[in-house]
Amino acid sequence: MSSGAYVRKHTANQYKLSISSCFQSKNDGTPCSNFIDSSGPLTAFALTGHLAMFAGKGRKLQWDVEKMKVTNIPEINKLVGRTYRKGWEL
User: Fold this and answer.
1) Is position 69 within any domain?
2) Structurally, how many domains does the chain consist of?
3) C-alpha to C-alpha distance for 82 and 89, rounded to whole angstroms
4) Cα first-last separation, the chain
5) What pLDDT was estimated at residue 42?
């Protein structure tokens, strides 16, 4: 190639290889990652960080894991959960 452009070669199984790599590793066929064990705690960590931003600089949150409530700044609790319209309650 005289223009210096890079031309990517495609294989017949390119898409199959891409999809299968998401579901299994090459070595032993196990999934690439198990998000079930880490997704809940990671989400809780991120959302608690958002609540801390609403609390303001220099204020610390005391989070009750069992009750899912902030114990020392009650006004932050209005941001936790949601109010459902009549007929849409869980």
Assistant:
1) yes
2) 1
3) 10
4) 63
5) 83
CA distance 88 to 23: 36
User: 13 pLDDT band (50/70/90 cuts)?
Assistant: confident
Q: What is the pLDDT of residue 45?
A: 87
Residue pair 10/17 in contact by the 8 Å Cβ criterion:
no
The pLDDT tens digits of the residues spanning 26-75 come to 556 666 666 667 778 888 889 899 999 999 999 999 999 889 899 999 99
Written as one string, the DSSP assignment of 11-76 is: -TTHHHHHHHHHH--TTT---S--HHHHHHHHHHHHHHHHHHHHH-TT----EETTTTEESS-GGG
Q: Which residues pair with 1 in a beta bridge?
A: none
DSSP structure class, residue 78? G
Q: With respect to residue 44, please indicate whether it lies within any of the assigned structural domains.
A: no
